[in-house]
C-alpha cells in the first residue's frame, strides 16, 4: 500500500484565496472606517439592532493604561 499522501492543490488555493479576500477586506475597512461600515449596516438593517448595540459597546471601550 502507498502510505504517502499526495499534495492537494485545492487546499493551497483556498488558503491563498482566503488571504487575498482578507487583505481586500482589511484595506476596505481601513479606508472607509469600521464605524462608517457599522452605520451603513445599521441603516440598511442588515444586522439586528441588538448586535449593533453589542458591537458598539466593544468598539467604544477605551484601553486602560496598565
In words, what does this structure look like?
With 66 residues, this protein is mostly helical. The chain has a domain of 28 residues. Helices cover 70% and strands 0% of the residues. It has three helices and no strands. The mean pLDDT is 81.
Gyration radius, to the nearest Å? 20 Å
Approximately what portion of the residues adopt beta-strand conformation?
under 5%
Biggest pleated sheet: none
Ranges with pLDDT <50 over ≥5 residues? none
The structural class is mainly alpha
Distance between the termini: 59 Å
The tally of beta strands, per DSSP, is 0
Judging from the principal axes of the Cα atoms, what is the shape? elongated
SSE order and pairing:
Elements: H1 9-32, H2 34-43, H3 49-60
What labels would you give this structure?
single chain, about 70 residues, mainly alpha, 3 helices, elongated
Amino acid at each position: 500500500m502507498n502510505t504517502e499522501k499526495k499534495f492537494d492543490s485545492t487546499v493551497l488555493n483556498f488558503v491563498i484565496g482566503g488571504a487575498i479576500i482578507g487583505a481586500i477586506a482589511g484595506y476596505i475597512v481601513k479606508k472607509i472606517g469600521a464605524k462608517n461600515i457599522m452605520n451603513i449596516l445599521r441603516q440598511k438593517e442588515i444586522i439586528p439592532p441588538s448586535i449593533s448595540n453589542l458591537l458598539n459597546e466593544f468598539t467604544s471601550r477605551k484601553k486602560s493604561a496598565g
